[in-house]
Amino acid sequence: MAVKKSHPTFNVPNFGAKSRKRVKARWRKQRGIDNKKREKMDFMGAEPTIGYRNPESLRGVRRSGKRIMIVHNVDELKRLMAGDVSGIEVTIAGGVSVRKRIAITEFAKGKVDVTNGVYK
């Protein structure tokens, strides 16, 4: 099985400097006219570019080698399980209530892996 490419952490300039505690660990494109990172100077670190992209066959695949599918209710899970579920992990959508999470988790138990289910 092919392995996803690794890439450096893409941070904003001055992340980690003691005087810049307010700078969060996240990426924002640099737009300043004199910005060294925008000018792609090596010492400023890497920027996200198209070259870091993984092959289409590996996109959306977790480390377990399974593809992830988002589910909002039990009906969606039933439709999903009508096909082949051997290479699929289910994630319950963020806006789903605890009551429905429990129902989805109970329905999927033993048949398909739920990454963020609620177990009693």
Order of helical and strand elements: EHEHE
Major sheet summary line: 3 strands, parallel
DSSP, total strands: 3
Give the terminus-to-terminus CA distance.
35 Å
Number of helical stretches of at least 4 residues:
2
Number of domains: 2
**Overall form:** elongated
Q: Could you tell me the radius of gyration in angstroms?
A: 20 Å
Q: What is the percent of helical residues?
A: 10-25%
Instruction: Record the strand order, biggest sheet.
Output: 1-2-3
> Which residues form runs of ≥5 with pLDDT under 50?
none
The average pLDDT value, as a whole number, equals: 89
Instruction: Work out the strand percent.
Output: 5-15%
Briefly note the structural class of the backbone.
alpha/beta
Question: Could you walk me through the main structural features you see in this protein, from its secondary elements to its overall organization?
Answer:
By secondary structure, this protein is α/β, with parallel strands linked by helices. A 3-stranded parallel beta sheet has the order 1-2-3, with helices on one face. The chain has 2 domains: 9-53, no CATH class; 67-114, no CATH class. The chain is elongated and about 55 Å long. The chain is built from 2 helices and 3 strands; from the N terminus they run βαβαβ. The two termini are 35 Å apart. The mean pLDDT is 89. It has helices spanning 74-81, 98-108; strands at 67-71, 88-92, 113-114. Helix content is 16%, strand content 10%.
